[in-house]
Amino acid sequence: VGDQFDAMFGPAYKGIPLATSVSGALARNYGIDKPFFFNRKEAKDHGEGGVMVGCKPQDGDRVVIVEDVVTAGTAVRESIALFQKVAPVKISSLFVSVDRMERGQGSCSTLDELRKEYGIAVHPIVTVRDIIQFLYERPIDGKVYIDHAMKERMEAYLRQYGAE
User: Fold this and answer.
1) Which of 78, 91, 100, 160 is least surrounded by Cβ atoms within 10 Å, i.e. has the fewest?
2) pLDDT range class, residue 73, cuts 50, 70, 90
C-alpha cells in the first residue's frame, strides 16, 4: 500500500486509537502525512454534529480501514455502507490486527469474503495460529498463557468455527 491512499478510517471504538497511532507512526517514522477519521456510534446533534470525526473524505478518496479484529465482518460492512452516505470513496485496503481465521457466512474465512465481496486488499498483522505458535508453552513474566490444555481448547474452537 505504501502511501497510495488518501486517509485512514478507524471504526468505533477500537479502531479509533489504532488509526490514530498508525497516522502518528507513519508521520514520525516515514514522513508520510495522512489524515484519519472515525465514526461515532450515535450521531451528535450539537457542535460539529454528525457521525464522522476527523478529516472529511471527498469523492474518490482512497481510504484504508484500520481495525482491531474481524470476526463476522459486520463492522467493516457497516463502515463501507456508512461511507456511501458521506462520499463515494474507494476502500483500498483493510488492515486487521488479528485474523481470528473464522468462517464467514460460507466455508471461507470472513477476510476472504471481504476480499471477494468488496475487491479490497486485506492485510492481517497476525493470525490466531501465529499467536498460538508464539505463546504455546512460552512463559511471559513467569506465566504461561497458552499451555497444552488451552491450546487444545483453541484448536477445538478452530475446528468447529474456523475457515477451511
Assistant:
1) 160
2) confident
